[in-house]
Each structure stands twice: as structure tokens, then as C-alpha cells.
Amino acid sequence: MSEPSSLPIGPVAFIGGGNMARSLIGGLVARGVAAGDIRVAEPVAALREALQRDFGVACFDNAQAAADGASVWLLAVKPQVMREVCASLAEQARAQRPLAISIAAGITASQLDRWLGGEVAVVRAMPNTPALLGVGITGLYANAAAAPRFDQAAGLLDAVGPTVRIDEETQMDAVTAVSGSGPAYVFLLAEAMQQAGQAQGLSADAARALVRQTLLGAATMLTQSEEPAEVLRARVTSPGGTTQAAIKTFEAGGFRDLVDSAIAAATRRGRELSAANE
Ligand SMILES: NC(=O)C1=CN([C@@H]2O[C@H](COP(=O)(O)OP(=O)(O)OC[C@H]3O[C@@H](n4cnc5c(N)ncnc54)[C@H](O)[C@@H]3O)[C@@H](O)[C@H]2O)C=CC1
Ligand SMILES: O=C(O)[C@@H]1CCC=N1
């Protein structure tokens, strides 16, 4: 195994050490980033202890202490507390001129810039929890001040999966709805398939094993094949066979419309989170 490397961008301070921060930190450390380059502010003692124990990162009970000396701040708190957290860091932002990367759903770059005191290099990033395993994907949008530092943000997030640059900030809500929230839709499908398998007489263990490996296999085909999803689907669907019976049932039940409405609702919710926390 290679030695942990220092981040080329210097120390990173995570402000918030909850679910998504944990996935990112775990992914970065597993990919060889030195734990000593990662500082975390998290008010919940049990979460601090777990992060320290599992990844060896330095944890603090307040944002200012973690941010001190860090050239990149990764803001990983809920949208509802972002304004207050940024206000508490505004003085330090003026002195340190950090690159501020926010992963909060909805909260805009101009809100973050204003709350941090103005003239701040802000990148909005929308990662997802598979980052923990190095198979996340992150949408990235940079404000004008962050444009020269875009590569720093991309370099950091690239460690936990590919990144996609987004030029229109308004599209970040759609990114959130598709890939930020997306793993939850797949987990919902897994739950539903497992229950349905049990309803057809399978044991819980057998249903679980069949569903998990089927999702892994399908996702692997989707990512490793040049062919689009509909072609891969057609190959499973024998005319007059079992798959066709299931697909017809999905279509008759409005599956595509339902997915469309769900993703539209998530996109809308992103916009609401921005307005509600103004
Ligand atoms: N969970 C996910 O899959 C994803 C979440 N996000 C975004 O990441 C952000 C965090 O979400 P989660 O990790 O799911 O939430 P979470 O609730 O697990 O984590 C937020 C953490 O911030 C901490 N916190 C609260 N006030 C703080 C303060 N003043 N200073 C430092 N830390 C403070 C909380 O104690 C909590 O542990 C949200 O803005 C969300 O929109 C983005 C992409 C995916
Ligand atoms: O549910 C949420 O609001 C966050 C953003 C994307 C995933 N989790």
C-alpha cells in the first residue's frame, strides 16, 4: 500500500461531521489522503469520537478551531444551519481567504458568499454517499471568484469518484435530485424488490442476496458497457416472457411519470431550501 499523501491543496476543514462528511472523509482516507490533512468541526461528541477512531482525523467541537489554518473549507452542515455557521466564520474568511466548498442542497453561491462576508471563492459541490467507497459522483459549480481555484475543488472531489462541471448554477438543483439523492431511490427499489421476493415465497436471506447482487450486476453492466440502458434492458426482455410481464406492469402503473414527478419534487425542494433559509 502506498504512503498517505499530503493533499496538494493543503489542509481541508470539514465543517460538519455527519453522514455525507463521513462518506467523503472515509473515501479520501481510503484513497491515500493523509488523515493529518483533514480537520473536522462537529458538535456531537459521539460523531467526533467515531471519526477520530475510524479515520484518525483531527476533530474539534467548533467551526472556528477546525477552519483555523485550513486553505479549503468544506461546508457539510444542513442547509437550515448554513447561514449561522457561515456568519460564525465570516471574520476568519476575510483573514484566511479560503476556498469554500459547500455540499448543502439548495443554498446558492451568492448566499454563501454574502454570509461569509463577500468576495469569497465559493464552489458548490453535490456529491453522494457512495463516495465512501470511491464510487461517488459529484457535480461542481464555481462562482467567478472560485474559477481560478476550480481545479483544487475538482482535485479534492475526484478522489472519491468522477466530477461533472456544471456551468449554470440553477442546474445544481437537478444534480441534487438525480445523483445527490439518487442512491436513496436505488435503496428504495432494493427494499421493494426484497419485500416482493419474500411475498413470492423466498426467504429473507435469499431475497436479500438475490436483490443485492442483481443491483450490483446491473449497475456494473450499465457503467462498463457502451450500450444505453434501453438496449441492456431489451436483452433481458424475451418476447412474451417474464421480464416483459413485469415491464408492462411497471409502465401501466406510470413508472416513468412517477420517477419524473419524484425528481421534479426533489429539484423543487432544492429551490425551496434556498428561499426558506435566506
Ligand atoms: N446525506 C447525503 O447523501 C448528502 C447530503 N448532502 C448535503 O450535506 C449536508 C449534510 O447532510 P448530512 O451529512 O446528510 O447531514 P447530517 O445531519 O448527518 O450532518 C450534518 C452535521 O453537521 C453538524 N453541525 C450542526 N451544526 C454545526 C456547526 N455549527 N458546526 C459544525 N457542525 C455542525 C451536525 O451535528 C451534523 O452531524 C447537507 O447540507 C446536505 O444537503 C449533499 C449530498 C448528499
Ligand atoms: O436529502 C437531502 O436533502 C440531501 C441532499 C442530497 C442527498 N441528501
Can you tell me about this structure?
It is a single chain. With 278 residues, the protein is α/β, with parallel strands linked by helices. The protein folds into two domains: 158 residues, Rossmann fold (3-Layer(aba) Sandwich), CATH 3.40.50; 92 residues, ProC C-terminal domain-like (ProC C-terminal domain-like fold). The protein is built from twelve helices and eight strands. Helix 1 links the parallel strand 1 and strand 2. Helix 7 crosses helix 12. The termini are far apart. The mean pLDDT is 96. Bound molecules: 1,4-dihydronicotinamide adenine dinucleotide (NAI) and (2S)-3,4-dihydro-2H-pyrrole-2-carboxylic acid (A1CAB).
